[in-house]
Design goal:
Radius of gyration: 21 Å
Distance between the termini: 65 Å
Structural class: alpha/beta
CATH class: Alpha Beta
Order of helices and strands: HEEEHEEHEEH
CATH topology: Glutaredoxin
Largest sheet: 5 strands, mixed
Length: about 170
């Protein structure tokens, strides 16, 4: 079967439109599945509260279970990520407005020995988070998990959108 010459351009345009639609739908589904997998891996990770995570520029380590009694937000961040810097400012505000709220800043995709004290300016617990990031299969930076006072997972979140993070955290404290 041959395509008549006068129908060739409309045919190509229809094919292009269907292809674009397929790509957009696939992208949304892929992003949603990554978020769901991140949440699932976090729920199933038995060592979340008991595993030792080395502090940055210190000789000791932190267990998330030691922070029970507080809401704990574990932020996966990188020093080169502008979005990480923005979310840290938001977390400073949230932390100042909520009692019993701790932030554990888990550095990933950076060499911890190259991080100086001037980078660690927020009132957070700074740990080397590369292993935890990989074990939870976090899909990107910044990402975070929020644990309630008993250490149970409240939710996970990937990415940063202005206003969205503080909205999520304020809603979770109610």
């Amino acid at each position: 079967m041959r395509l008549d010459q006068k129908y060739f351009v409309p045919f190509i345009l229809v094919c292009a439109a269907f292809t674009m639609l397929f790509i957009v739908i696939s992208s949304f589904n892929f992003t949603e599945r990554r978020q769901e997998r991140f949440t699932d891996y976090t729920r199933q990770y038995n060592e979340l509260l008991t595993k030792n995570h080395p502090y940055i520029n210190k000789s000791d380590s932190l267990r998330l279970g030691d922070l029970k009694g507080n809401q704990v937000l574990v932020l996966f961040w990188a020093s080169w990520s502008d979005k990480s810097a923005e979310i840290m400012k938001v977390l400073d505000e949230v932390k100042s407005q909520q009692e019993n709220f701790k932030v554990v800043a888990a550095l990933v995709k950076d060499a911890t020995e190259s991080i100086d004290e001037e980078t660690l300016t927020h009132d957070f617990e700074y740990i080397d988070g590369t292993i935890l990031f990989n074990e939870l299969r976090a899909p990107g930076i910044p990402s975070f998990i929020l644990l309630d006072e008993s250490g149970e997972l409240k939710f996970t979140h990937v990415g940063y959108k202005e206003g969205k993070v503080s909205e999520l955290l304020m809603a979770s404290s109610e």
